[in-house]
Design a protein that fits this description.
The complex is a heterodimer of chains A (643) and B (305). Chain A is of the alpha+beta class and 643 residues long. Chain A is built from 23 helices and 18 strands. In chain A, helix 2 runs parallel beside helix 4. The chains are: A alpha+beta (643), B alpha/beta (305).
Chain lengths: 643, 305
């Protein structure tokens, strides 16, 4: 009864994070089942019969199939596991069932890591593991129950004792690149980040996200000014009058200029896309990644786990003065029919400014001097969005400005393209790194100027210099919605938030980011250079084997009493001989009691047994009788003793 | 066992039928210079046993019936003004004897109970600032009713600890009861009892008991037992060093009565329930485990080294 309470409670606790995520009917079913089981123990009604349980199980599996269209995969699989465990609760009659449920609960606990690997999750699961262990311990008591305090205490001691083992396994257990078995596809749903297209309004959603995009740590603390922090992401070339899209990414492996003098390390959160972000312009390629002609860094595979790479960048430079004609032609293309007023306006500008540079400056001045407003909540735009934006609404977000500026440039015959990415970031003084959130997403423009190459132009900076100098929060009107805390109104909360983020950063860096490379580094520091995972396994096994041997040896020493005197050892030989004949001596059975029992069962041995017992008792318990002669005789008797 | 002790045991066995083991334990307790607590329902022969022991050993015997209005002076004695001598004269109480039978000790108030306490522990009493030695040997046999009976003041743990052994007589088996019914009046039999020993003889035996050898191996076992009670979560608290000593003394006496000059693990196992049952409490009150279950469990769990 007590065990059922414990089991139900710990099961619900371990499943709680799942229950909050799952469809309502599953959570409700599981909770109801656990409640029924607890009530059953109290009110003593009969548990459901086997066929009913089977029926519920099949029905639940059917429900999951309908819900998720599959029985496999992360969400469906976990749902199935949770429901089946809950049903097992209704089927738990004996201690064995309880133990099984306890161990399966541990498995359920681990599945929480499929969803989240943050510190709070880890702490929560540590508590769950503690309680589960206490439950399993509680099931061991058949007679006197020492109380839940004792149970929890013992479980805690066991956990603490397991810490060295955990540390060794964490450090030495062979690490495999990526997940050992492929995580199901749906595990990456819901990761937010930039995409390969941009239309008016598409960035706004990102701006509302408080999620971390990546963190960057600059070498020697040489952090550039916020206005120079343009983290380059997808480059968008093609415009259909409304939406900008990136071309199918060409795999051309561009040589990078290698001029980067700014060194830093980026820890990128998974976003399920291939872009790796770097300050423009990147001076090197991260491992397992390519660089495209338009200076994007692309990982070989979508980034599905947290990734760390070292980068160098050169900021405030131009590149590609010798750009290919076909490329330039592509960056002049506009859909023929859209935005006619912009086209006319561009022609008019062109007639006034012969030089490309003058034209760019003129448009920026236009943005600066005319009544343009930077806002997160612009009015909706119709068929010709750039026309409407430039000449009517004049309220827009960075994507409106970037889009309008690029269209204007192209219409005026200047090669231009939209670059998306992140701008700025929050310096965390606690951890000494820059924290870039999804809310820092930004779009800007690159124009190609004769003899110079591609140059960055940020029309948003012209409209709202505060956006690039002091971040998104200061640039937007206070009435615009922003994620909590981004504005940083409360100094203390801000400080706590930064401290917490720097703890998270260290956790990511040192615990979650402990990958094969780091392990190799650690092992080579230990003296195992170039250790393959096979070697590590062998070393681990050998060490584990030695540890087990030592432990077993110590335990045996205690059991057999190596320190015991020779008389004791000889007597144990005598007992073993009798035990082989089906007469084992109980551990708490005194020699004379044992002798009496033995002679009753084997009267034929009575004389020998009594003789040996008398000698033993004399040797071990009497005064001044443990002389060598008696001991020799005692041993001799036992040698010849043939039961 | 010396012939005298044997005779004592025989004689008592003749009066209390079918309780040879308890009688042996009681004698062992006496030989180990400890006090004895007999706990059982009324009418199973507690008083008779105490009386028989005292008479057979040739000791002076006093009985104090404990009641709720018993005062310390009723136990220890009182000074009374004597007009002839013009001074106070001490009238010793019933405690000034060899064997005190404290009958139904848990019926008295704690105040009266603790008057007996000093006497038991120190073999002396202090009355009106004057300390008086009690005669030797001094032996308290207390009987008590099971504490669930109404009108009882359960002895506190500190007081229970001063009894070397606690035994239960229990109902006689059918055969013994039949013999009892057929036999003579027990009161007459008590009167006919012949002393088989005297105070000096008993003191000599007690001295010999102290000489019984306890080997290191045996002390290992004893310590293992005591440590188990201190470490195991089943017990509210472990056995005290006084309990360890009691265990050793009791086992010595038992070995002596078995005509041995050394103690065996079996001796400890035999006396252990009587010695520790009243000193052990289960860790959890709710399970209803009694001290005797705990003692049995202890013996079963601890291996003989």
């Amino acid at each position: 009864m007590r065990d059922i309470h414990w089991l139900s409670a710990t099961f619900l606790l371990a499943a709680a994070p799942h229950l909050l995520r799952m469809p309502l009917w599953i959570s409700a079913l599981v909770t109801v089942i656990a409640a029924i089981r607890v009530l059953q123990v109290r009110l003593r009604f009969a548990l459901p019969r086997k066929w009913l349980l089977a029926l519920i199980a099949v029905a639940a599996a059917g429900g999951i199939l309908l819900q998720y269209r599959t029985l496999f995969g992360r969400d469906a699989g976990v749902s199935l596991l949770v429901i089946m465990l809950a049903l097992k609760l209704l089927e738990t009659h004996s201690r064995r069932d309880g133990m099984l449920l306890g161990f399966l609960g541990c498995f359920l606990l681990v599945t929480n890591f499929l969803h989240s690997q943050t510190i709070p999750t880890a702490l929560f699961m540590l508590i769950c593991a503690w309680l589960l262990l206490a439950t399993l311990i509680g099931m061991q008591y058949t007679g006197i129950w020492p109380g839940w305090r004792q149970q929890l205490q013992r479980s805690g001691v066991l956990l603490v004792q397991a810490v060295p083992l955990m540390a060794v396994l964490f450090l030495l257990f062979p690490r495999v690149q990526g997940p050992l078995w492929g995580l199901p596809q749906d595990a990456y749903a819901g990761l937010s980040g930039l995409s390969d297209n941009m239309s008016p309004g598409s960035l706004n959603n990102l701006i509302l996200s408080y999620d971390v995009a990546f963190r960057a740590e600059f070498k020697d603390g040489k952090t550039p000014d916020a206005k120079d922090l343009y983290w380059r992401g997808p480059v968008l070339w093609d415009y259909d009058g409304r939406t900008w899209t990136a071309p199918r990414l060409t795999q051309s492996n561009e040589d990078l200029p290698e001029t980067g003098d700014l060194e830093y390390t980026v820890t990128l959160e998974p976003h399920n896309k291939r872009w790796l972000f770097a300050l423009e312009f990147p001076g090197q390629r991260p491992p397992r990644a390519i660089a495209t002609r338009d200076m994007q860094l692309l990982s070989f595979t979508p980034v599905r786990s947290r990734m760390r790479y070292d980068m160098t960048s050169a900021i405030g430079v131009a590149y590609g003065a010798d750009e290919d004609r076909s490329v330039l032609a592509r960056s002049l293309r506009l859909p023929a029919t859209s935005n006619p007023r912009t086209g006319n306006f561009a022609a008019e500008l062109r007639s006034r400014h012969r030089e490309d540079r003058d034209l760019v400056t003129a448009v920026l001045n236009l943005f600066r001097t005319e009544n343009f407003v930077y806002t997160l909540t612009p009015p909706l735009l119709g068929e010709h969005p750039v026309d409407e934006f430039l000449f009517e609404t004049r309220r827009g977000f960075c994507e409106h400005y970037a889009s309008a500026f690029t269209v204007l440039m192209r219409a005026a015959g200047i090669p231009a393209r939209v670059v998306t990415g992140y701008q700025g970031g929050e310096i965390n003084p606690v951890g000494g790194y820059i924290l870039v959130r999804q809310a820092d997403a930004h779009a800007w423009v690159e124009v190609w100027l004769e003899n110079t190459g591609w140059v960055r132009v940020d029309p948003t900076a012209a409209v709202s210099p505060a956006r690039v100098e002091r971040g998104i929060a200061s640039a937007l009107p206070r009435s615009d919605p922003l994620p909590m805390f981004v504005r940083g109104d409360f100094a203390m909360l801000q400080r706590m938030r930064l401290t917490w983020d720097s703890i998270t950063y260290s956790w990511n860096q040192w615990v979650l980011g402990y990958n094969p490379e780091r392990q190799r580094l650690f092992l080579s520091q230990l003296g195992f250079s170039e250790a393959s995972w096979q070697t590590i396994s062998v070393v681990l096994l050998v060490f584990a084997g030695i540890a087990v041997l030592i432990g077993a040896g110590l335990a045996l020493r205690d059991l057999r009493g190596v320190r015991a005197d020779p008389a004791k050892r000889a007597y144990e030989r005598f007992c073993r001989k009798l035990a082989q004949r089906g007469l084992p001596r109980g551990a708490a059975e005194g020699p004379r009691v044992f002798a009496r029992r033995a002679t009753q069962q084997r009267p034929d041995l009575a004389a020998a047994i009594e003789d040996i017992t008398a000698l033993y008792v004399g040797l071990r318990y009497a005064e001044n009788s443990s002389d060598a002669e008696t001991l020799r005789r005692f041993k001799q008797r036992i040698r010849v003793f043939k039961p | 066992m010396s012939s005298q002790l044997n005779a004592v045991a025989e004689q008592i066995n003749g009066i209390i039928l079918g309780k040879a083991h308890q009688i042996r334990l009681a004698l062992a307790c006496l030989l180990a210079r400890g006090h004895l607590l007999i706990e059982d329902v009324p009418g199973v022969g507690k008083t008779t046993l105490a009386h028989a022991i005292a008479t057979s050993l040739g000791l002076r015997f006093q009985r104090i019936q404990f009641t709720s209005d018993l005062l310390p002076a009723d136990i220890l004695g009182i000074s009374v003004y004597n007009r002839d001598t013009g001074g106070f004269e001490f009238h010793p109480g019933p405690v000034f004897t060899n064997v005190v039978l404290a009958d139904e000790v848990n019926r008295a108030t704690p105040r009266a109970q603790s008057a007996l306490l000093e006497a038991m522990e120190e073999n002396q009493v202090t009355i009106e600032g004057e300390t008086r030695q009690l005669p030797l040997p001094f032996f308290v046999i207390a009987t008590q009713n099971p504490s669930y009976q109404i009108g009882t003041f359960p002895l506190p743990e500190s007081q229970l600890d001063r009894f070397l052994m606690r035994i239960e007589l229990g109902y006689p088996d059918a055969e013994a009861e039949r013999a009892l019914l057929k036999g003579d009046n027990r009161r007459d039999m008590l009167l006919r009892l012949q002393p088989q020993l005297d105070a000096d003889g008993l003191a000599r035996l007690q001295l010999e008991v102290q000489q019984v050898h306890a080997s290191p191996a045996l002390l290992d076992y004893l310590q293992a037992l005591v440590n188990a009670t201190r470490r195991s979560p089943s017990f509210a608290h472990g056995l005290s060093p006084r309990a360890s000593l009691a265990l050793l003394h009791g086992a010595r006496a038992w070995a002596y009565m078995d005509d041995r000059k050394h103690v065996l693990p079996e001796d400890i196992q035999t006396v252990l329930p009587a010695v520790v049952t009243h000193r052990l409490n289960p860790a959890s009150e709710t399970t209803g485990t009694s001290g005797s279950t705990l003692a049995a469990q202890l013996l079963e769990e601890v291996a003989i080294p």
